[in-house]
Amino acid sequence: MNRVLLNIAFISCLMLGACKKKQAPPNPEVPVNLLKVTPKTVLYYENYPATTRALNQVNLLPQVSGAITGMFFTEGTQVNKGQKLYEIDERLYKAAYDQAVANLEVSKSGLVQAQQDADRYVYLNKYNAVAKQLYDHAVVALEQAKSTVKASEQQVKTAKTNLTYATVYAPFTGTIGISQVRLGEVVTPSVTTLDTLSQDNPMAVDFIINEKNLPFFEKLQHEKIKVDSLFTLLMPDNSLYGHLGKLAIIDRAVDPQTGTIRVRLVFDNPEHYLRAGMSCVVRVHNQDVQPQLVVPNKAVVEQMGEYFVYVAKDTLIKISADSLKKMDIKTAADAKKAKLIAVQKKVQTGQIIGPDIIIKSGINAGDKIIVDGLQSLHDGARITTANKVAPGGGKGGH
Asked: By the 8 A CB rule, do 210 and 260 touch?
């Protein structure tokens, strides 16, 4: 009998222990680090991918056909306006010019004879000493001789122009590229490209902005605001270009498909470090001098394109019943036990500055945000700063 009672007591203890194990443990407090948000003045740049472009660029095309007989420049170097670049075989054009000049001389001689005949018949006609028909023929012949001279003069001009086109000169000062033709190669007018010449000082830099930013750039353009280091340029190797840019042109219209518009800056390029077609980055200096709220980037959580931070709230502060229910806190007594809870706040983010990010709205100065332990948090989670090691090596606190 005693043995039966002992077995019953033993089984009861086991069942009681099993029941206790099935009870859900209380939600543990998540250890976190806190950071008090304070406004501060920040220096940052808006970065825009950009492309360098020559303010003036032209493809050199021949105006006459023939073989290339001369090249008078070094490829890839600067040439001056009016400098001789190419020579096309000019023998045919020189012969055509000489012939046109000779024909002009013949026409002038014919004009002299026609003028003399006309003068003679005019005199005789005055005294009715010549047939009327001969007089008329003399006057017409004079006019024809004058027209022949004019036609011959135009032929001389055309021949001279063609002879001039046999030599290609630089239309402006700039950098010439690698020649597309070689000595002896036959070129065709308006088809063959000889080379490309581009002006490289100053150099244009084009970039695309969103139409939302257009008022800022229009204000800079129309009010001519002068700000030191407003526009700077990062080279392809991320080095900073040594000259500052100036706003030159805002394109005429916004692209309705993308909602963007092109902006052009101009940079001095005396050392010719900038070359047309380079990919670079335009940096626009931040003009907002008001203090901003800056938090560590790691404190911001992204959820479906929206951004949130967790703010530590003391539950001793009065919280509505709806808020308590939402935060899985059933009673005010539970809230007092929690002491600190994490409240999720939706924020609008701004520029990223190294490891930090600007918060434009959603939190206030003085708020204590959670910067570590976010993986274990949810809205209303109980938190603690006890024994939590801060990034700097000390213990977190509030």
From this structure: yes
- Over pLDDT 70: what percentage of the chain? 82
DSSP state of 171: S
Exposure of 237 in the CB half-sphere (CA atoms within 13 A): 4
> 94 — phi, psi (to 5°)?
-70, -40
Q: Rounded distance, CA 390 to CA 384, Å?
A: 13
Query: Which DSSP symbol is given to 190?
Result: T
pTM beyond cutoff 0.70 = no
Question: Distance between terminal CA atoms of the chain?
Answer: 63
**Is residue 324 helix, strand or coil?**
helix
Q: Regarding predicted confidence, which is higher, 317 or 69? A: 69
Q: What are the residues facing 175 on neighbouring strands?
A: 78, 198
Q: Is the pLDDT of residue 395 over 50?
A: no
Measure the CA–CA gap between 363 and 311, rounded to whole angstroms: 8
**pLDDT confidence of residue 257:** 93
Query: What is the pLDDT of the chain when averaged over all its residues?
Result: 83
**From residue 193, how far is each of 58, 162, 387 by CA, in Å?**
10, 18, 75
Q: Do residues 245 and 284 lie in contact, with contact meaning Cβ atoms separated by under 8 Å?
A: no
What are the strands of the beta sheet with 66-71, ordered from one edge? 167-169, 84-88, 66-71, 186-187
Considering only CA atoms, which of 63, 275, 270 is closest in space to residue 176? 275
Query: Is pLDDT above 50 for 166?
Result: yes
Measured between alpha carbons, how far is 335 from 192 in angstroms, rounded to an integer? Answer: 84
At 245-282, the pLDDT tens digits run 999 999 999 999 999 999 999 999 999 899 999 999 99
**Comparing C-alpha atoms, which of 306, 309, 298, 294 is closest to residue 350?**
294
Identify the band that residue 338 occupies on the pLDDT scale cut at 50, 70 and 90. low
Q: Which residues of 108-147 are buried (b: 16+ CB within 10 A; e: fewer)?
A: eebbeebeebbeebeeebeeeebeeeebeebeebbeebee
